[in-house]
Amino acid sequence: MNVTEKPAFLSALGMVSALGTGIAQSSETLFGDRPADMRLHEDYLVGESTILGTFTGAVDPLPDHLGHYDTRNNRLLWTAANQISDEISDVIATFGKDRVAVILGTSTSGIEEGTSGYRDRLTTGHWAESFRYEDQEIGSPAEFLRDALDLQNQAYVISTACSSSAKAFGAAQRLIRAGLCDAVLVGGVDSLCRLTVRGFHSLSSVATGICNPLSINRDGINIGEGAALFVMRPDRGKIAVMGVGETSDAHHPNAPHPDGIGAMAAMRAALEQSGLPTDAISYVNLHGTATPLNDSMEARAVHTIFDHPVAVSSTKPMTGHTLGAAGAIEAAILWLSLNQMHDGAPLPRHIWDGVIDPGIPAINLVETVGQRLAPADQSAMMSNSFAFGGSNVSVILGRGFNNSGPSS
C-alpha cells in the first residue's frame, strides 16, 4: 500500500448467513463442526427441489417509521447492522452524520417481494395493499440504512452480480481518500429470490446437491442469502483493507475468460496496491462456484499468480453463492480468521467429494477441519469475486503490517 494513502480499517463486523448469526456462530461453522444451514426447498423451482444457503435465525424488525422499506433484504441488513450498533454510534459521534457514507452490494434487493406482488395482481386483478414498486429498486438497501441511521452523506448500491459487494470496498476506499467522507458502512446483502434461482436454473447452473467445487463431478451452484456489514474508518482497527484490484475483461455475458486473464489482472492489481509480495498472502478464499468453467479458470489463475503453495478453499458449500453479498461475506471470512491469527489463524475447510479433476492444476486445498496457520504477528489474506460480464475483483485484508495502525 502506498504510504501516502490513508489506511482503511475494518473495525467491526455484523453478519448473517447460512453460517449462522454473528461472529461467534459463523466462526463455529467455518472453523469447527457446526453444520451450515444448507436447506432443501421445494418452492423455488417448478416441480423440483433445490438446496439453498438459508439464514434460519431471527431477523430484526425495521424501525416503525421505516415500514415502507420492509423487505427480507433490508431485514437481513438491519439484523447485521444491529450487531455492531455500538461501533456505528461511535463512528457517527466521531465524524458526524454528514461524514459517514453507505456503500453496499446487492443483486436481489426487494425483487422477491415484487414478484409476489405481481403474482397477486395476476391472481386477483388487484395490487396487494403492501405492494410497493420501490422495493425492487437496487438502491433500496443503502437508502434504507441511510434513513434508519439518519446519515447525510452518500448512500448507494453497486450491482455487478457476484462482484458487487467486493467492489464496494474499493469504492469506499476511494471516497475516504478523496475526502468525500471520513467513514463508510460497507458490505453487501442478498436474500433468496425465486426469479434469481429460476434464472440460474435456466442456465443449467444449479447443483443437484450440495455444490462440489473443484471436483470433476461439480455441476453448479447453490444460491444463498445473507448480509455482511463492516465499519470502515481511517483512525483505528486491527484489520486493514490493504488492496483492492478490479478488472473488467468483458469476455462473455455469463462465462469467464478460460485462461483467467481478467482474474489474474485483478489479483495482481490487489497485490500491487497492497505493496505485498505474493508469498505474503497466507490464504485465498476462492470464488469457487463449483461450475465447470469458473473452477478451472480460477485454479489456473491461482496456480500462475502464486509462487508458493498458498492455502485455498471455497466456502460456498457452507454459505451458498450469495451473489451480490458474496464479496462482503467472503471478506468477512478473512476478517474472522485474521482476528485469531495470534493463536494461529483458523482456515475454513474446502468441502467436496475429493475426486480430482485432472484438467485442473494442483492447488493447496484446506481439507482438514480445524486447520490453522502458524501463529504470527503479521498476516494477509485474499478473497476473489468473479462475476458475469467479466467483472473481476480481488480484495486483500491484512493485520499487523506497519500500515495497519494501532489495534482497536
From TrEMBL:
Transmembrane segments: none annotated. GO terms for molecular function: 3-oxoacyl-[acyl-carrier-protein] synthase activity. InterPro entries: Beta-ketoacyl_synthase (IPR000794), Ketoacyl_synth_C (IPR014031), Ketoacyl_synth_N (IPR014030), PKS_Beta-ketoAc_synthase_dom (IPR020841), Thiolase-like (IPR016039). One of its GO terms (biological process) is fatty acid biosynthetic process. GO terms for cellular component: cytosol. Coiled coil: none annotated. It holds the Pfam family Ketoacyl-synt_C. Keywords: Transferase. The keyword Transferase applies. NCBIfam families: PRK09185.1 (NF006618). This is Ketosynthase family 3 (KS3) domain-containing protein. It comes from Thalassospira profundimaris.
